[in-house]
Amino acid sequence: MKRNILWILGALLVLVVLVLVRTFNTNLFKRNVSEALTTEMTISVQELSELKENYSIVELDAENQRFPNSVVIPFDKLLDKDNKEKLASIDGKTLLYSGDIATSSKAWVILNQLEFEAVYILSDEANPEELKYKFQPDTRIRLE
Amino acid sequence: MNARIKISLLLAGVGLILAFLPFNAAKSFQLKPTELLDVSSNSDMYFSVDEVARFVNNEDTTIQLIDLRSASEFMESNIPGSINIPFNDLLNPSWEGYLNQDKVRNVYYANGDETANMAWTIVSGLGYSNSFVMKGGMNEWYKTVMLSKFEGERITPRENALFENRYKARRTFTQINSLPDSLKMQYLEAKRLEESQLDGGCE
């Protein structure tokens, strides 16, 4: 009986070690993916003057810096240890900016899933997903 | 201590460990952060609107266009051959058969570049391969395929092929999207059925 108990305790210990390794491994995504679908994530450049909280702009295009005093982190170096520390030390909102919003959108999902809080996409347009054109139907169309 | 108490204590220990496990049953990304960053930095994930126009003209069955906009926006106009998976419904298990597969290349689009790139990063993080984005979204489709005109005096063979491709896709887009809603629904339903049969699935 005592031997069986030792085996079970051993198995529990291994389980605890695995849980701890996984919990404190920073090189894994841990957040529920659905968090990336429901969070408010875009702030426009026009809204910056109305922001009451502290914020820092993180520019992801190292070669085309637009905002003075911004933090520059090239997208492909986003997860370098130094850059992750820079991101973690930001006080207030983190606004990700890139000339091509595609880059900041991808960076936002990655940081969101790494459990960085108060991260937003800084957009040049008030609504980057607005359709700027209106479809004009051809009323003469008939099914063949 | 008798055996029953010892076993009860062990079970309580297992229960405590399970209670503090950091993961729940919900999905989390399969790729490691550095792997996802590497594939995200690669421009091979994009198709231009001209390439998508060619897929439409050729009725390319190796391509599945996925419109991430709302159902109402989709019904108003969409690229022929698209299916509608609104972004906020992306993780609905009923779409997994479309999103996670190796036979067809999925091309995501919305109106701009924000939603489609977020969707791409999410599905890629989940480990779904064969995912792409139509660069510029519907705004670029309208600007380049629907509205661009050749304005030079002499057209080169390359330009001629490019504009023929755009005009043909423009005609198909206008035809399908000009149908009354009831007929458009029939067309979309027929396409969905055709795809589920091709995929070996059932209604």
Explain the overall architecture.
The complex is a heterodimer of chains A (144) and B (203). Chain A is α/β, with parallel strands linked by helices. Chain A folds into two domains: 28 residues; 89 residues, 3-Layer(aba) Sandwich (Oxidized Rhodanese, domain 1). Helices cover 33% and strands 14% of the residues of chain A. Chain B has a single domain, classed as Rhodanese-like domain (Oxidized Rhodanese, domain 1, 3-Layer(aba) Sandwich), CATH 3.40.250. The model of chain B has no long low-confidence stretch (mean pLDDT 88). In chain B, helix 3 crosses helix 8. A five-stranded parallel sheet of chain B has the order 1-5-4-2-3.
What's a quick, concise take on this entry?
The complex is a heterodimer of chains A (144) and B (203). Chain A folds into two domains: 1-28; 35-123, Rhodanese-like domain (Oxidized Rhodanese, domain 1). Helix content of chain A is 33%, strand content 14%.
Outline the secondary-structure elements.
The complex is a heterodimer of chains A (144) and B (203).
Chain A: H1 2-24, H2 35-38, E1 42-44, E2 55-59, E3 71-72, H3 81-88, E4 93-97, H4 101-113, E5 119-123
Chain B: H1 3-19, H2 33-40, E1 46-47, H3 49-57, E2 63-67, H4 71-76, E3 82-84, H5 96-99, E4 105-109, H6 114-125, E5 131-134, H7 137-146, H8 157-178, H9 181-198
Helix pairs in contact in B: 3-8
